[in-house]
Amino acid sequence: MNHVHVPAGTPLPTQAMILAGGKGSRLRPYTDDRPKTMVEIPGTGTPIIGHQLAWLAEEGVTDVVISSGHLAEVLQEWLDTTDLPVKVTTVVEPEPLGRGGGLKYAAPALPRPDEPWFATNSDIWTRFSLREMAAFHAERGATATLALARPRMPWGAVETNEFGQVLDFIESPPSPYLINAGVYVFGPEFTTLLPDRGDHERLTFPRLARERRLAGFTLPQGAYWRAIDTVKDLTEAARELAVR
Q1: How far apart are the C-alpha atoms of 14 and 191, rounded to whole Å?
Q2: Which CDD domains does the UniProt entry name for this protein (predicted)?
Q3: Of 65, 68, 79, 76, which Cα lies nearest the Cα of 118?
Q4: Model confidence band, residue 200 (pLDDT cutoffs 50, 70, 90)
Q5: What's the CA gap between 144 and 240, in Å, rounded?
Q6: Which residue, 67, 60, 81, is CA-closest to 130?
Q7: Residue 10 in 3-state DSSP?
Q8: Distance CA 204, CA 190 (A)
Q9: Alpha-carbon distance 173 to 164, whole Å?
Q10: Which residues face 118 on adjacent strands?
Q11: pLDDT at position 34, please?
Q12: Is the C-alpha dihedral spanning 133, 183, 194, 203 positive or negative?
């Protein structure tokens, strides 16, 4: 449960970074000719990056840096020919640097390096209040805050009693564990802690957790969240959109 009090005058981040350098091999054949972030959500006519930019703009973000790599020219062409709701700067990795390395390499392009910033993986499609997450981050004085989701399990669960008798079948129950939802708030000091190459989730976050400088913001109940990582995820996202 998040209890958020926004102190008067608390500045909320207006800059963000999208990590869009991955190949998205598990989304083939959709990613044979485009980066993962350029895959369209069926039925919307808009790629994942378009949904993300719209959401960031709705949450008060004015400047977005996209860290790109694989087929960056396809992404750049779309950006150049689309009416965007925010100012976008692209940074192309000279070689694959990993997610943490990608963040560090692109961070100098953020327009206000002395202010906090949002970041998100390019395959996340979600809707929740980034303002509340930023206030949560500020209230706790964290160096980094990650959004936490409780996804539904892909399998059905079986409920039994102490005698081993089956009582019920539960279709796709919520996971008992929270997971990293791939959306972050970073303080300006976070950039110096990133690796030159490698994954911040394995190299930087554990250190911050040990030092109690890492916070976790649980997504509000009912907030939409999905990672578009496989063809099945894409199909299910389209189905969920149809019934929303």
Answers
A1: 17
A2: NTP_transferase
A3: 65
A4: confident
A5: 31
A6: 60
A7: coil
A8: 9
A9: 20
A10: 16, 185
A11: 66
A12: positive
